[in-house]
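User: Fold this; tokens only.

Assistant: Input:
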Amino acid sequence: MTYCVGMMLDKGLVLMSDTRTNSGVDNISVFRKMHSWSVPGDRVIAVMTAGNLATTQAVISLLEERTKAPEDREPSILRAPTMFRVASMIGELLSETIRKRQESNDHMSGGPKFTASIIVAGQIAGMEPRLFLIYPEGNFIEASMDTPFFQIGETKYGRPIIIRAYNREMDFEDAVKLLMVSMDSTLAANLSVGMPLDLMVIERDNFEPLHERRIHASDPFFQSISTGWSEALRTAFHSLPSYSLDQTDTQD
């Protein structure tokens, strides 16, 4: 399992992913799930992946190959005219990769089902920053005012805090803090999501990542967020009205 989240802001895009991949409790590894490509002054594109590792690595490897001398390796996301077309190309590549692997696997009785999903984020010069969620079938949806963020992987534990605290006008610093709290809540609830974390901030009209780093469990700021959030929750809980067992039910 994994947890990745991409968020749209007025200022740009903020992305965060974990790095844990496991095939049982005795086979846990660290793999990067966030990847990016940029052409200064023209475009910046980032993807985050969740699902079958062999499938997502195959998709990323093909994307990487096509970005080398892109004029000779079509179709390349570095030559796509719009972010919509970028999402379409990645969706087609994902569905085709899953189809081929599934057809090969179907020859083996009882083999696993292959599935994966991808978040695509970025901006091309002269256009707005855009955020997409691509499904295993290759179709996708785009973030909007009503749906300003996407999650893939283990989504349920980190979703409530984003819904309650998200503000499209918030600064990048607050957005990063919000995603750290969301990630910390997921880490605390599900052992299949794990450190380190990858963070990327893409500023509007700045066609390369404004900020990116890997956050380890020993990171002082992340530790302060985790500890502070736990203490804040306990304080908020104890500040709520106390229930009395002596209350009489007045309902009919």
